[in-house]
Design a protein that fits this description.
eight-stranded mixed sheet, magnesium
Length: 1157
Amino acid sequence: MGDLTNSDYYAKNQGNDVSSNHEGGFGVSVMELRDLMELRGSEAVVKIQEEYGDMDGLCQRLKTSPTEGLTGDDLDKRKEVYGENLIPPKKPKTFLQLVWEALQDVTLIILEVAALISLGLSFYQPPGGDSGESCGTAAAGAEDEGEAEAGWIEGAAILLSVVCVVLVTAFNDWSKEKQFRGLQSRIEQEQKFQVVRGAQVIQLPVADIVVGDIAQIKYGDLLPADGVLIQGNDLKIDESSLTGESDHVKKDADKDPMLLSGTHVMEGSGRMLVTAVGVNSQTGIIFTLLGAGEPVEEEKKKEKVKKQDGAAAMEMQPLKSAEGGEMEEKEKKKANISKKEKSVLQGKLTKLAVQIGKAGLVMSAITVIILVLYFAVDNFVLQKRPWLTECTPIYVQYFVKFFIIGVTVLVVAVPEGLPLAVTISLAYSVKKMMKDNNLVRHLDACETMGNATAICSDKTGTLTTNRMTAVACYVGDVHYKEIPDPGALTAKSLDILVNAISLNSAYTTKILPATKEGGLPMQVGNKTECGLLGLVLDLKRDYQPIRNQIPEEKLYKVYTFNSARKSMSTVIKLSDGSFRMYSKGASEIVLKKCTKILNQEGEPRVFRPRDKDEMVKKVIEPMACDGLRTICVAYRDFPGDPEPLWDNENDILNELTAVCVVGIEDPVRPEVPDAIIRCQRAGITVRMVTGDNINTARAIAIKCGIIHPGEDFLCIDGKEFNRRIRNEKGEVEQERMDKVWPKLRVLARSSPTDKHTLVKGIIDSCLTDQRQVVAVTGDGTNDGPALKKADVGFAMGIAGTDVAKEASDIILTDDNFSSIVKAVMWGRNVYDSISKFLQFQLTVNVVAVIVAFTGACITQDSPLKAVQMLWVNLIMDTFASLALATEPPTEALLMRKPYGRNKPLISSTMTKNILGHGIYQLVIIFSLLFVGEQIFDIDSGRHAPLHSPPSEHYTIIFNTFVLMQLFNEINARKIHGERNVFDGIFRNPIFCSIVFGTFAIQIVIVQFGGKPFSCTPLDLEKWGWCTFLGLGELVWGQVIATIPNSKLRFLRGAGQLTKKNEMPGDEDMNEDNEEIDHAERELRRGQVLWFRGLNRIQTQIDVVNTFKSGSSYQGQLRRQSSTTSQNQDVTNVSSPSHVSLSNALSPTSPAGLPPTA
């Protein structure tokens, strides 16, 4: 079916292309190339031979040269005929769709309904002018001086504020989406690829590659287009992204030359002819199918839902979650947005929001019930009024008013600003982190980084500059501490050395002259090889003529470098028909395979095992202790006849002759030691994981400050590490791991699997009470698994391979370790911003809910009206989240230990602040509510009838309330009990403008808000008093800061409470990686209890029956089996902690009773 869809799609999209291709002057059409690319292995080879003769034939048809590439004058034409290398992105959601999504919020829907009912009823006039009298208090004052006309205002105002909230939310989502797209396109633009054009190798953005280009591929590349291999060395490709097969596929120009876009080069190098780009490539076809398939699926889903009738739908509810979960998993995998379980912060916040929401719901329900009951009792019981039909609308109007008050309580209680605050804070941080060279790919990584307790860093390029320079060497039995003068070496040794280095390195590695005057020469390609080529230049020789003499295609066989071999070898055919192989690699590995060594005259002499040991002691270890990486260069000659079996690697890479050992230095980046000290101060352990030898690694670790002489730490290599953590069977044991990792600081000569094992071991460890949060840096393809496993993976933007970038969460655009410290700072800042916002938000919540609740119960009317509450909600949610979430980070953030995963969100200091400020505000508000009219000598606003004009009394309460929030917002800037709340306030212009802006709008609302906001203008004196009471918040804040936490015992309990609930549940949920929501968990618990109850009753009945009828033994057995099946049900439904239940019940089953009486 897939093929059919493809060809249909193409018949539609490219119907006119096939004819035009040949007119375009190319000898092959898009469809022919597509058919070719669907073949694999030998089929493809046969097809190429049949259709085009050979690869050169195909190149001619595509008007390109296999060695020189395109000339570059017909690029636009190629794009026209074969398409561009772009896959059109999926359409973003429109603003209206986002508005529609924002409207789905339950609280908003409740408000809309209430507002509409209120609107409808305000236009309803009860028939008969004088029936008002008979309806009693209900109608009193309702019709005063045309006030009824203004009844609609409240409903309209609520609707208006709903619109505001929706627009703000939608706009936020929209800008977030836009930012994300910008980020994506930036990541895409950064991917460049090496292409041969006009015989020059150039770097091109992936989007500029066209069909007919000759692309150079090497280890670590992510292939940007489909192509056919022209020439390859030891090429192995990971095609799992397309085929799902995890084994690496060997590619060969003669056996299987097909290379597909989106696959990773795991080993080797080569050149390919690009045959399909963009939507015509294999990845493109899959994307277009996904894009084309979506609308159809959705239609089907909708139909299905319609078919289910109500009852069935109800029954389906709990079951759906399991299937839904799987679907979502698949969706997520497709979208690849949520890489890991929900982030720590989001988990904590969701939990908190649910708890607060539940509390709010209960409060609002109680408020409504009390109001309705009070009204009913007062009217119909105490005053014994009959229920008159013509009065019904008026009663209903009262009930709607009560309902609106209830909803208002709920609206204020539900912290819908939380997700907003998180989004704003993260989006703001991500934007700013861009400036600090952190390109964040997954939003939550930024916040997780604040909790990091361990960083496992690569050495090369991250801690060091990744500019390799040869500084010492051992040639012809002499150890030179610096690079010798070429005259000191014999011509023979020098020739072999220069040839070995020039030919046995990737031809893409070069040293180019410096771009700036007086700058260092540019190193292109593999840095270690650059160091060796630098040695050739230091010996006053040039590598380029040697390479020109033997171009890449003349190399007979190449064994490319990989993490298993740790060496690279190249075989060339000499003029007399014999072969010579040059080899280079990690010195201890290559030296093991050497049986001879060149002496001072440049002649091979025997190299015995004891010479090797001496060499290691006298040459390699001293070099390594100076922090040098040692590379051994060797060669071996083979006879031309019989030709050796090249595939038999072990025999070939043996009996070598050592030429020299080079010590290459990679200096530590100047800013690293300081960054590491800052990490250690912040409670983060830095570990170095490197492929270098242990002495080099230790020397660099001391230079960086990862280890200090005299400390108790471990520096071990991969071999020793595996010996310590694996049992006899070779399996990793967590308890052995736990003995190693706490002290481990340097892991040398490590393989990619060791890195992954270490990261996994630290994450899974239960040694500390807090689960460790691990960040990992990596640049190679082999670091992919460790980057994926880590909580936060950092890939190197410059030296990193595409595979590493793909697996990471954050890309360091300058490859610098000190940027990681910046990421930690921003991460902690996000966490603190959320805490600041919570502290502010919860104070307002507590006060507003209590005021609305008690006010409603005592005076039958909330002192804060619905519209006023919505305005308060707007300042405390949207504006406050903007103001508090955009605080810039300070160095002080790095002076404390990480929070860890299971620390409650609300610390004891915060609880103290919330309760303290809550008490102050409640005292003020209630004093104003009940004795305010005497203090200010004004009319009381209590017990006002329906639709009465706004009172000065209630306006003062509203105004004071808002001003107290404003000044408390300044208090909320500090959450660790600091005294100076104004510290650094002007560094945050957003905060200042929001505080002043809110104050200005508040003045406008009070003075000119009138009926919709239930306000009357106040004079200057009353404004003065309101402001004075607001300013009291700042003074009171200082009072609270003086009370030590230790005095308030119950606070610790408050923190603990959330913690206890959080821990077991969260861990279980995360382990299964399903996010069961709380309702569902309650539901399960309910089911378990229900089954348990049933079971007990059943068992008791059984026992009684058995005693009654001592005769029928069969009956007992039958019953027993039913009991056991019941027990099994319990076991299935319940979670593992209830499993013991079935065992506990079984002894009471009749088996234990005498068989017959």
